[in-house]
Design brief:
By secondary structure, the protein is mainly beta. It has strands at about 5, 10, 15-25, 30-40, 45-50, 55-60, 65-70, 75-80, 90-100, 105, 110-115. The chain is built from no helices and 11 strands. The strands form 2 sheets. Strands 2, 4, 5, 6, 9, 10 and 11 form a 7-stranded mixed beta sheet that branches. A 4-stranded antiparallel beta sheet has the order 1-3-8-7, with no helix packed on it. A hairpin with a 6-residue loop joins β4 (about 30-40) and β5. It is globular, with a radius of gyration of 13 Å.
Length: about 120
């Protein structure tokens, strides 16, 4: 399974970006697809996750109300809509696909930089 993350860039505080994670196989049966981020000097953290079927979605407290994760099964793509961006959102964002318990694949990461 290969994941290709895209959509990062430089944006001013208060702006928006939409990240895309294209998966090389059907995502319909994948248990969960998630977005994570890692800022310089910090540990990687979970930002949002959407489980199979799209019925269960969870967000980190720091992004609730600002970020929205969604999936398009027909395009094998998961999105992360990020609004009201803050400088502290600056990080490399990664998508991950949990095909089965203990079997997770990672994309290459896309840089998001929010200027104040």
């Amino acid at each position: 399974v290969q994941l290709q993350a895209s959509g990062g860039g430089l944006v001013q505080a208060g702006g928006s970006l939409r990240l895309s994670c294209e998966v090389s196989r059907s995502i319909f049966s994948i248990n969960g697809i998630s977005w994570h981020r890692q800022a310089p000097g910090k540990q990687r953290e979970l930002v949002a996750i959407i489980l199979r079927g799209g019925g269960t979605i969870n967000y980190a407290d720091s992004v609730k109300g600002r970020f929205t994760i969604s999936r398009d099964n027909a395009k094998n793509t998961v999105y992360l809509q990020m609004n009201s961006l803050k400088p502290e959102d600056t990080a490399v964002y990664y998508c991950a696909a949990m095909v089965a318990p203990g079997d997770t694949y990672w994309g290459q990461g896309t840089q998001v930089t929010v200027s104040s």
